[in-house]
Design a protein that fits this description.
The protein is of the alpha+beta class. It has 2 domains: about 1-45; about 65-290, Porin (Beta Barrel), CATH 2.40.160.20. It has 3 helices and 9 strands, in the order αβααββββββββ. It has helices at about 1-35, 85-90, 95-100; strands at about 65-80, 110-130, 130-145, 155-160, 165-190, 195-220, 225-260, 260-270, 280-290. The chain has an 8-stranded antiparallel β-barrel with strand order 1-2-3-5-6-7-8-9. A hairpin with a 2-residue loop joins strand 2 and strand 3 (about 130-145).
């Protein structure tokens, strides 16, 4: 009797264990299905963190900077009025100058010349969002030398007092510009690592200047017989290291190639006030490199 009971209990236990195993298997399969149905990207390890893109770094154009430069310039010199003052001075006591104005006769002309330059610059930039404002001192050692083209003039003219003059005018002039310095205001717009800019300023220079004038002729009294009186006047002057003053206008492009190093290309026009009635202007193109502090 007891043996039969034990057998029934064992059979029952075996049946229960088989059902438990079946239930566990069903629950496991249902858990996998549910996990797959509700899976989201944030649960995957490789997609759990997406780093943000790095913020762009703005180049700092503001502050002090300095550099060196080389260039080539084209100078235009106008000597056409250079002989007026000395001729007027030589003939100041003659009715000839008061009525016929030989000092206004043009015996000199215009000419162009070119030359290389080398120098340095130093400045300061101040930033207003993308706008860069600043000032700069720019110096170049230059060599622009020209001699005036000469066209002698010979004329016969008369005055109201009955005198007849035969007048020959000869002149000469030269200019050699040796130094050029500009104090300029700059305004530019930052475009990534580029800085295009415009500039305007005041300019000073130094030059060796000379001019001369000669008046040769005769004064004739219309009598019978006529009375002919020859005359000869000449004046000349030279000044070395004469200062020139004027204004400048131009533009260029700075390009940052390292955090504190930039390259430069620019063009500048300079116009000087006349000295001894000689006018000069210079157009220069330059290449340079600088360091920002």
């Amino acid at each position: 009797m007891m043996n039969g009971a034990r057998k029934r209990i064992c059979a029952t236990k075996g049946t229960v264990m088989r059902w438990l195993l079946i239930a566990v298997g069903l629950i496991a399969s249902m858990s996998d299905a549910l996990a797959g149905g509700f899976e989201t990207p944030i649960l995957r390890g490789s997609d759990a963190y997406v780093p943000a893109a790095p913020a762009p770094q703005l180049l700092k154009w503001s502050g002090f900077y300095a550099g060196g430069q080389v260039g080539y310039g084209f100078a235009s010199m106008d000597f056409s009025r250079a002989t007026r003052e000395p001729i007027a001075h030589m003939l100041r006591e003659l009715l000839l100058e008061n009525e016929q104005h030989p000092s206004q006769w043009q015996v000199l002309g215009k000419t162009d010349t070119g030359g290389a330059s080398a120098g340095f610059f130093f400045g300061y930039n101040n930033r207003w969002e993308d706008v860069i404002l600043g000032f700069e001192l720019n110096y170049s050692r230059v060599s622009h030398r020209a001699d005036a083209p000469v066209s002698p003039i010979a004329r016969v003219t008369a005055t109201s007092n009955g005198l007849v003059y035969l007048v020959n005018l000869i002149g000469g002039a030269s200019m050699h510009i040796t130094d050029l310095a500009t104090i300029r205001a700059r305004a530019g717009v930052q475009v990534e690592n580029f800085l295009p800019y415009a500039m305007i300023g005041v300019t000073a220079g130094r030059a060796n200047i000379s001019r001369s004038a000669t008046v040769i002729g005769t004064e004739t009294v219309t009598s019978d017989p006529p009375i002919v009186t020859p005359f000869f006047f000449t004046e000349g002057e030279t000044k070395n290291g004469a200062f020139l003053f004027g204004w400048s206008l131009g533009g260029g492009l700075d390009m940052m190639i390292m955090p504190n190093v930039f390259l430069r290309a620019e063009a500048e026009y300079v116009a000087f006030s006349p000295v001894w009635e000689i006018k000069a202007n210079i157009t220069t193109v330059r290449l340079g490199a600088g360091i920002k502090f």
